[in-house]
Design a protein that fits this description.
Radius of gyration: 28 Å
Number of domains: 4
CATH topology of the largest domain: Rossmann fold
InterPro entries: Peptidase_S8/S53_dom_sf
GO molecular function, one term: serine-type endopeptidase activity
CATH superfamily of the largest domain: Peptidase S8/S53 domain
CATH class of the largest domain: Alpha Beta
Oligomer: single chain
Shape: elongated
Largest sheet: 7 strands, parallel
Protein name: Peptidase S8/S53 domain-containing protein
GO biological process, one term: proteolysis
Strand content: 15-25%
Helix content: 25-40%
CATH architecture of the largest domain: 3-Layer(aba) Sandwich
Number of helices: 19
Length: about 650
């Protein structure tokens, strides 16, 4: 009742209680403020009150502020929008997005049939909607090199690991124009998929439909039915007002596109036209003066729209557009990376056998602070993943848009996650998207990632307060060093460690990593002095292990790759430590110092330098190249059974054999 009468109640903050946990902890004063309705339990994710609060917030706030007013999974984990328009710049990602959602829809329908639901009455996907086989590796390679430029927004493929709120602030879908005469049903599939994800309401819908072969009106009605659309911009010429009424009867703002057909204009302003939409307040009509429509007819259509019978209380805005759609262009072309041999992370570390025996239930939470991930390149189905985006675009527009952390067009974050997950398959990922192209980052509230219980954070940028808070909570910061040699400014957060000699504040939890080859030789432009450990960072295959995922056409290399290798090994070290600690008779002491544990094991993994003939072994010094197989057993013949494996690992951690 209060929310209905006083809408602004939902966006009010109140200070935390003087003796609350927030005040007791060293949380900044700004972060101590709580929403008025923060008394709702975090587990009460679907209560009527919370749903009302969310809807009121969406109607009043830009998306960048939404999560700060809610508790529970809204801050980290559930999506409040869907924008896949950036995928149009990389057709391979767009194709995979549609492929996977149709695959999931088919799986849901098959599951309903198996469970005994009225499957005889369920509608099967049209033949055009059946999931096509994923593109071949050759096709993938060709498509991936088609577009090198990336737009400033974000986006990708849908997997069952992504959850949505019951209400979304907006859904943006690009054109699927192929230039061939075929029925398009992609948007229908996307909205059906959202409904399977329990989405019930969408505030704003924008669909760039195909000019000459758009979705049928019947499919549009099916796609939007039951979603309580408030603003509808379906870019299809001559869309019937009857279809709009069937698809979005409560629409308040409506965009219509005219091909110059006078009969359609008569319909729009007739008795069965826009006057039948009771909540309509604004109509924006665009006359498409393009190809077959002359200038005089376009002006005539504009005059009809401006002077026609307008429904009472409805503002009509009319303009003439001289082109349809946006020419994406072909971008810059590139060729395959060549025939360089690629090595998977488990090959480089020689941990295949060890990972087969390692059956630990311990799961280390790893925070990945990069460009987000793409589910066309990294499988959310196969890993525990949740995320949050701190990247917002179109901030000057009425509806600010948030990048989708799981739909990233930049492949960097996906590559890092693939490397880490292959070395510790059971780790849990907390993805914080702070940039969309690896060239700049939004500070946002990344420090809050730490409160999510992560034990390791891999990043290439961090502020002092982030590093300091991580240190106080025993969290490891894995970071790369410069790949531009010594002729560069200091790289942060790596410099927090390298500059600590004589400093009052030491950051032993910061582990700067240098990329090198299999012999420990740093890469050509690496900054050797800035590193704490060397890890293999050359000729690494960063593709996912799922055969349906897009494959990286070339190899990845550099300090960021080496940092991902180090992060995966560190996560595995901590997982094994917690496994030994959880035994009925613990084989390791209960030490809460994660940085100390990882540092100690990394030192045991260091590769010794070869000494000359006749020189005593004591003269050998440890090289900074970390080799996991020097610590973890990798020979199948040396691991007799599970009990022997546990006992052997326990002795290694205790400082024995």
């Amino acid at each position: 009742m209060l929310l209905k009468r006083y809408l602004k109640l939902a966006i009010q903050f109140q200070p935390a209680e003087p003796f609350s946990e927030l005040v007791a902890s060293s949380v900044d004063e700004e972060d101590r403020k709580l929403p008025v309705f923060s008394w709702l339990r975090s587990s009460d994710t679907d209560s009527p009150v919370r749903r009302q609060i969310l809807e009121r917030l969406m109607g009043q706030l830009p998306i960048s502020q939404l999560r700060e007013h809610l508790t529970g999974p809204s801050w980290f984990g559930k999506e409040m929008s869907l924008d896949i328009t950036s995928l149009a710049f990389d057709p391979s990602l767009l194709d995979f997005f549609v492929y996977f959602i149709r695959k999931e829809l088919a799986r849901v329908e098959d599951g309903a049939a198996t469970a005994g639901s009225p499957s005889n009455s369920r509608q099967k996907l049209p033949s055009q909607q059946q999931p096509p086989p994923p593109p071949s590796s050759t096709q993938q390679q060709t498509v991936q090199y088609r577009h090198r430029h990336r737009p400033p927004s974000m986006v990708v493929v849908s997997r069952s690991g992504v959850d949505f709120e019951h209400a979304l602030k907006y859904v943006n879908i690009p054109s699927f124009e192929t230039g061939t005469a075929e029925r398009h049903t992609e948007a229908l599939s996307i909205f059906r998929w959202l409904k399977c994800k329990d989405v019930e309401r969408v505030f704003q819908v924008h669909v760039d439909d195909c000019r000459h072969h758009p979705h049928s009106e019947e499919d549009i009605e099916k796609a939007l039915a039951g979603l309580d659309i408030r603003e509808l911009d379906w870019r299809r010429v001559d869309l019937s007002a009857i279809s709009v009424s069937a698809a979005a009867p409560g629409v308040e703002k409506l965009w219509l596109y005219s091909s110059g057909n006078l009969a359609v204009l008569d319909h729009w302003f007739g008795e069965n036209g826009i006057c039948t939409l009771p909540n309509l307040r604004n109509v924006y009509i665009k006359i498409i003066h393009y190809t077959f429509l002359g200038e005089s007819r376009a002006l005539q259509c504009q005059d009809i729209c401006l002077n026609g019978p307008h429904p009472q209380g409805v503002e009509v805005d009319v303009s003439i557009a001289t082109r349809w759609g946006v020419n994406m262009g072909s971008g810059m072309h590139g060729g395959p990376a060549g025939s360089v041999r690629k090595f998977r992370p488990v090959e480089v570390t020689n941990l295949n056998v060890f990972l087969e025996f390692c059956r630990t239930d311990s799961r280390i939470k790893v925070g990945v602070v990069y460009t987000g991930i793409s589910t066309a390149r990294f499988s959310i189905d196969s890993h525990a993943v949740h995320g949050r985006s701190f990247v917002w675009t179109n901030t000057a527009m009425e509806f600010e848009q948030e990048a989708s952390w799981w739909l990233a067009t930049d492949s960097h974050g996906s590559q890092m996650a693939n490397i880490i997950s292959q070395l510790d398959p059971r780790c849990i990922f907390s993805i914080a998207q702070v940039t969309d192209d690896a060239r700049y980052f939004g500070k946002g509230s990344v420090v809050k990632l730490i409160s999510e219980g992560v034990q390791i954070i891999i990043c290439s940028f961090a502020l002092r307060d982030v590093v300091r808070k991580a240190k106080s909570m025993g969290i490891i910061i894995m970071c790369g060093t410069s790949d531009e040699g010594e002729n560069t400014d200091e790289v942060w957060p790596a410099a927090y460690y390298t500059q600590q000699e004589g400093a009052v504040e030491r950051f032993d939890n910061v582990l700067p990593i240098v990329g090198c080859d299999e012999h420990g030789k740093p890469s050509r432009f690496s900054s050797e002095a800035a590193g704490r450990y060397y890890f293999r960072g050359k000729d690494i295959d960063a593709s996912g292990t799922d055969s349906e995922l897009l494959k990286e056409p070339g190899v990845v290399r550099g300090s960021s790759v080496a940092t991902a290798m180090a992060t995966g090994i560190a996560s595995l070290i901590l997982a094994c430590y917690h496994m030994l600690l959880a035994l009925p008779e613990p084989k390791v002491p209960d030490a809460a110092d994660a940085p100390g544990i990882v540092n100690a094991i990394f030192h045991k993994m260091l590769q010794p330098t070869t000494v000359g003939p006749g020189m005593p072994d004591s003269m050998a010094k440890c090289h900074r190249l970390v080799t996991a197989s020097r610590f973890f057993p990798v020979d199948a013949n040396s691991i007799l059974d599970e009990d022997y494996f546990i006992d052997h690992i326990g002795k290694l951690y205790a400082g024995g054999e």
